[in-house]
């Protein structure tokens, strides 16, 4: 998370806390006054809360990590290109007597092509 995104998020949180405090004070003030009219929040408190929500959301989005691919094949291809170190299934694939699909496919393809037959 960069410095700019942290500042935007922090400023948005301060605004949100202030809007919450203002809404609480407004509610307390009008509950003690026993007015018969409606006690809706003033427009400036509502706008302050919405602006703070936008600022916090913007700061969090700016500070987020790069998104990972959605497609399974893209994700798997990216892991293979990086050497497979981030592969979450690496421990399963390295188990003793684990059936190696790639090696079996290569053996089958060689067998179909006839590469493993002894040519006379």
Automatic annotation (TrEMBL):
One of its GO terms (biological process) is protein folding in endoplasmic reticulum. Residues 1-19 form the signal peptide. It comes from the Eukaryota. The chain crosses the membrane at residues 46-64. This is Magnesium transporter. Pfam families: MMgT. The keyword Membrane applies. Keywords: Membrane, Signal, Transmembrane, Transmembrane helix. Its main location: membrane. GO terms for cellular component: EMC complex. Belongs to the membrane magnesium transporter (TC 1.A.67) family. It is found in: Endomembrane system. InterPro entries: EMC_subunit, MMgT. It is a multi-pass membrane protein.
């Amino acid at each position: 998370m960069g410095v700019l995104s942290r500042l935007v998020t922090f400023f948005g949180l301060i605004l949100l806390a202030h809007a919450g405090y203002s809404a609480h004070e407004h509610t307390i003030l009008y509950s003690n006054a026993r007015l018969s009219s409606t006690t809706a929040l003033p427009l400036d408190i509502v706008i302050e809360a919405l602006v703070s929500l936008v600022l916090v959301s913007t700061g969090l989005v700016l500070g987020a990590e790069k998104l990972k691919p959605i497609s399974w094949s893209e994700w798997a291809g990216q892991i293979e290109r990086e050497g497979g170190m981030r592969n979450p299934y690496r421990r399963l694939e390295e188990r003793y007597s684990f059936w190696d699909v790639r090696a079996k496919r290569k053996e089958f393809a060689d067998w179909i092509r006839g590469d493993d037959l002894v040519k006379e």
